[in-house]
Fold this protein.
Amino acid sequence: MTNGPVYKRVLLKLSGEMLSGGSEHALSPQAIGRFADEVKEIQAMGVEVAMVIGGGNIFRGLAGASRGMDRSHADYMGMLATVINALAFQDALESRGVYTRVMSAIPMDKIAEPYIRRRAMRHLEKGRVVIFGAGTGNPFFSTDTAAALRAAEVGAELIMKATKVDGIYDKDPAHHADAVRFDKLSYLEVLQRQLKVMDATAMAMCMDNDIPVVVFDLNAEGNVKRVVLGETIGTRVEVGPTEMEI
């Protein structure tokens, strides 16, 4: 382990459900505040931080489609939910003195900047946290895919997939006491085993662009810092020997 961060630029992916803090409300100021503290800590260390936040705590497109809604319509509603979460996180960060920009894939210039890659890069270079909202701006793509796409576009060295479990398991640890956690996996192993860490499109994009993914428990305080310091926590997904030959 080094004394300082081993990554210059990272993308932190949060699920919308994490912002509820396990409460019955869509947004928990306490949970958002604690996560914002962790982002502030690594930003103060000189790490350039981009973020993508899901919208499942407010509305999930797939859930709407399963209840008979048009899938595209439902997905657009889900994209708007991600912007609400992005604004909530921006408020928490800026109340802590962290300059933050929300960039939306769907134009809404009264509350967010339009996503422009070069502008996003400039914000990151200036030390601002950039939160990408509204997914990719297209239905049928998840926020995991949006995270992989934005990470590739801005040159992030790592995707930090923050969850409520401490890594990737061979089966759901909430329902199987004998579930085994992996320390490392290759992209192909995740795809072949159909492990539900990210959707297949997102994982394939990470593989194509050689962007490692670390899946870790955000509820354990200090884990965001541990990841950027290079400590071995959670599960790391990266290129494997077979993929190196392809």
The chain has one domain: 9-245.
